[in-house]
Amino acid sequence: MDFILNESHQNALNLLVKAAAYSADCPNGFLVGGTETNWNLLASYGEQPPLLFDDSTEKWLKLSLTNRQPTIINDALGQTLPVYFHQLRSLGHQFVVGIAIWCEEEKIIGVLFVSSPLPQQRLSTAQAYALQTHAALIGQVLQLQAGLFLPKQKPLMERLRLLESVVVNAKDAILITEAEPIDEPGPRIVYCNPAFLSTTGYTLSEVIGQTPRILQCDDTSRATLDLIRKALSSWQPIEVELINTRRDGSKFWVELSIVPVANEKGWFTHWVSVQRDISERKKSEYLAIQALADREEKVALESRLEERKRIEEALSYAAYHDELTSLYNRAYLMALLADVFNNNGHKQIPAATVLFLDLDRFKFVNDSLGHQAGDILLEVVSRRLENCIREDDVLARVGGDEFAILLADENQSPLAVELAQRIVSQLSLPVDIDGHNIFTSCSIGIVTADVTHTSPEDLLRDADIAMYVAKKQGRGRWALFDVSMREAAIDALVMQNALKQAVANNEFSVVYQPIYSLLTDEICGAEALVRWLHPVLGQVSPDRFITVAEDIGVIHELGSWVMQEGCAELQRWKAEFPELELHLNVNVSGVELNRPGYANQIKDILAQTGIDAHDLQVEITESVFLHQPDATARVLESIRELGVRIALDDFGTGYSALGYIDRYPTDAIKIDQSFVSRMMTYHRSDAIVRSILSLGRALNVDIIAEGVETLPQLQRLREMECPFVQGYLLSRPVSAEKIMTLLQSQTTKSTPIS
């Protein structure tokens, strides 16, 4: 038989070898064959195999591959492998499968090999059938080249006939479908073998032309079906287990393997789907699992009482201990305090003193170094606190970074103060976390039970109040509770509730303090200031309610409303006096800046009111840069990109002012009124004001002097060539209508401010 291949047949063989390797999920494939005792390499795909192929290897293959099934070629064949296959292994072909190519005369005329570098690879049932099919197609091409026979049917029908010839007598249930479509309705069934009809109960006429979806039911795993669809969409072989249903509705488990089969042109023309009923195996697995569970239950039953005791002890420990630090928790402390109050006997005052501790700036450690670093810090702090207390004292972690110490005896106040001082000293020492020296401190509130305390909650509440008083004094402080602190806390709570109600009742208003240009002696803008008139408390100072508004989150709604009102008024003024160049200053807190989307909020207000962005100036203080300065800088930059100007308020009274001007975008500086009031008396203050003005001119930054209250102050600023001023001398904050009147007066006369 002559195997000198023409180009078309060579291409067909190469494509069939590639398709065979692909269906077996192997990266390599090659075909050997030819005239007897003269076999050589006829086609290949992937890594090139050894070319030397002697007649002893040919004879070995003809003796070994006689059952027409794919055979894994390794030592398990029970024979010594030819040198050729040892060469394959040395080249990385660890898994090699061979299947004989037969001719019409029932002779082996070649062998198709597929190989992989993975030694433990296996073939699914469908992959084995696919290799048989590709071997049959390759045999057909070889015989066509030799001129032994010509196909009597159309190519597609001939391929289908070859597929059928492979699977017709198989014991597994086999479907052959068209290659496409993958999407609904799915590939149509063109053939099913008798085993499939026997397994499912369908007749041939009920199956042909349908899709494999007729086997699905509600219990068929959607996730498994999605895996199948994904594999088919990329022409990948797949093997899964799933539940199918028979014609009568009964359900059964199958091991399903699917592979694509290509023709001699390399096109995938069909899917071969092999379904093996594994219901009995699944049932056995279930019974085995159930039996194992029963045995485990029996073993567990023997130790259940002991385990229950251990669990109860563990639950008891967990109920009263903190998981991270192993200290007592809040529940234990409250239970212990309850005993102190309940077992007080004839005494009216419980013998208890509590120290309530809160770590200063603990959130900063979490945000900058991560929660793991925060946990390490809490553990170190816990151990240091343990070293500070006496054996009878009770230390508990009662919150995230909050601790409490109970001194359960009389006359403990002096000892509590000593303990607080010792704790402050211990916690001032650095903590090494991943090479970083972390310096922490705590604020401590101390309370001793008296006649006003009737419950543990009362005692902890007052300790908490004292702790917040200490925190307001600075880091690493302690404070002894007194009744005035409780009254102040109640006042703060009243203020919070009143503030929330004020927002709902629209009790706020906006007034405007004019800003004058000393160059023209005219109003060039105004600063919008919020005012609150409470029906009972009367006029509430912004110094009292702004901080509270920030604490409870009302500042966002309030600040947005003030800016909206101010911009709307500015638009009215500009419409009435188009010849005047006016701008509006609005104070913005760091809390507002750090809220996501703040720049977009300003953009919306500008769009709604119609004012030019350059006519709006946002006033900030240096304190906005204390926390998350980089994030704050990005927000300010996005605001400036809108065209809105940035002014630095209270300049010189905060932190590192010159550094902030250098690092962050600034269009204007407001000289704090403390410098303006002192410059007439103190040479140093005068020099500072002159320096700020000189700095503004050098940086091309506008300078506004605040708090001008006397004529000499105004004259001095004029001599210094300060460009802009505001203060009570010129005008107190007034209503929008009054601003309109001032502007009207300004346009009718030009009297200089003096």
From TrEMBL:
Pfam families in the record: EAL (PF00563), GGDEF (PF00990), PAS_9 (PF13426)
Protein name: GGDEF domain-containing protein
Superkingdom of source: Bacteria
Domain GGDEF: start-end pairs: 350-483
Residue stretches making up the PAC domain: 236-290
Occurrences of domain PAS (ranges): 182-211
SUPFAM superfamilies: EAL domain-like, GAF domain-like, Nucleotide cyclase, PYP-like sensor domain (PAS domain)
Domain EAL, residue spans: 492-747
